[in-house]
Amino acid sequence: MFFKSENAKLKKRITELEAALAERDKTSAKLMARIAELEAKIIELTKNSRNSSKPPSSDGPDIQRSRSKRSKKKRGGQPGHERHERKLIPQEQVNEIIPIKPLECRGCGLALSGNDKEPIRHQVIEIPPITPHITEYQLHELYCKNCQTNTRAPLPMDVPRGSFGPRLCAMIAVLTAKYRLSKRAARECMSDFLGVIVALGSIAKIEQQVSKVLEEPYAAAILYVQDSSVVNADETSWRENKQKAWLWVTATKLVSVFVIARSRGAAVAKQMLSETYCGIVITDRWGAYHWLKTKLRQLCWSHLIRDFRSWIDRGGVGKKLGKAILKGAALLRRRSSLD
User: Fold this and answer.
1) Which CATH superfamily is domain 215-299 in?
2) Average pLDDT over residues 47-53
3) What is the pTM of this model?
């Protein structure tokens, strides 16, 4: 009876201890989760443009930017530096040559004549006064006495059906697309420099016409990118018709292709690169590129370097490792620049 009583007490005590231990494990797990959460918040608070993908505009006043040491040299070219001068345009491409000769000797005043075999050449480049070239096509309507029918001459096939020629349309497209001028700014530019009045609606129509004409070369540019062995890919937020969109880019050494899409998903990346792409794609860590095979995807060096800097900011073993990797990365950049 005594042993049974003691065994029962021990079993009860073991059960109590096991329950207490389980409760302590729960508390410990909660505390560990809380510590991880706080560490993540600390890491997030210490992120800046140097150790993460945050833009420089988000940096606080405490972030010290690396500044180059102030040089003691005077401004401008230094003694012995290689001169950089504008190359003279060949004489056969010059519109006008004006020879300037001295009339009299600067020593004795005697009249001079003849030619210098190697005169000093001084060229001035100027834009001529620009006036728009306006062609008026008068479509005559003539009466046939034989069948009593009026016939009006049609426009020739090579004459634009609108009011503006192809060069003027191309210029407007460049102003609004490449140089990102608003339609109003483009209209003012055409008026100020060329004296041509273009309505805002006409600019929108010209943009659509140019887009239609560029469809074929644009498709050829996409195929070129998809056939390239190395492609850089990225995307950024964009505003299109006052709605949020994304500007995607795939860039090679010679050709870059841009796409404006409402989505930031993998479907757009597959459309630009093609799902059968077998070259190397350089990207950031955005999930839209996860479908690429690991061996075909290279993470952007700029992002990796920021990650290594964040290791240094955390201290400890990561600080040593981060410094060592950055040192190796700097050596790699120097070697690649020499190549």
Assistant:
1) Ribonuclease H-like superfamily/Ribonuclease H (3.30.420.10)
2) 69
3) 0.64
